[in-house]
Specification:
The protein is of the alpha+beta class and 157 residues long. The protein is built from four helices and five strands, in the order βααββααββ. The chain has a single domain, classed as 2-Layer Sandwich (Heat Shock Protein 90), CATH 3.30.565. It is 29% helix and 25% strand. Strands 1-2-3-5-4 form a five-stranded antiparallel beta sheet, with helices on one face. It binds adenosine-5'-diphosphate (ADP) and magnesium ion (MG).
Length: 157
Amino acid sequence: MSEGNRFRLEILARPENVGIARLTAASFAAQIDFTLSEIEEVKVAVSEAVSNSVIHAYAGRAEGVVVLEGHIENGGLIISVEDFGKGIEDVALARQPSFTTDPERMGLGFSFMEAFVDELEVRSQKDKGTKIIMRKKPEAARGQCRPGDDRGTREDD
Ligand SMILES: Nc1ncnc2c1ncn2[C@@H]1O[C@H](COP(=O)(O)OP(=O)(O)O)[C@@H](O)[C@H]1O
Ligand SMILES: [Mg+2]
């Protein structure tokens, strides 16, 4: 029913717009068979990606935009978060847990994104911007759990 559905949302890269992105992503994700805790995971991952565009991408520059897009394909969710800011010099390093260029921060944004989606792709070019692409399928649609992966099977989380 929702197969093939899409949305595109452009917001100014301001902290007060992170919640708009989070809620839009959540209501789009609710069109497919995610559990409430899986939708919470989508919200956290999208918040982290959009916050990064707000905090890091346009630091010290003119106000920029963030484009959030969603697509339902093969029963799964694809969400992208794109900015046109300064880019990430070393993506592999930026994705390391606790790596941050801002000592006030924890450097865990990418770790949360990785933990909460099935696939995380980071495309970035210096002075051109960054695009984060996240793919996630409902646990129910993934069939058997992978060995050692007990997400979605506990009743207490
Ligand atoms: N959209 C972005 N544009 C520019 N740099 C980014 C972007 N997203 C992440 N980064 C860089 O990657 C680092 C790690 O990001 P993250 O794991 O979210 O940690 P934190 O935001 O706490 O620093 C950031 O400190 C920043 O240097
Ligand atoms: Mg971050």
